[in-house]
Design a protein that fits this description.
The protein is an alpha+beta fold and 110 residues long. The protein has 2 helices and 5 strands. A 5-stranded mixed sheet has the order 3-4-2-1-5, with helices on one face.
Amino acid sequence: MITITLVRDDNREIIEFWVTGHANYKSKGAVSTGNDIVCAAVSAVVQTAVEGMKRYLPDEICVKKGKGMLHVEIINGKTSKESSVILETMLLGLKRVEENYSEYVRITVP
């Protein structure tokens, strides 16, 4: 299961998120690894958001990666219009993946 955990500030702006785990999805007829379309979808959406933030807000984010884990935090919780647009758009894409593959993806907001 892939878990996406979002943290919002008092203004409901996303200021931090974690992506952890693996979907371990196997499409029918798949005989080898590397066919996990759920992991690929989540990764594509999240990595696009991270690359957008790195390009347009390079001094505003901290990115940490590990095996089966990604953590992104807006430094000092200082959001901007750009960060909000990028992260809310990321969330739209992730929600769509969750809707279609709910047994493999969970989005939480503590």
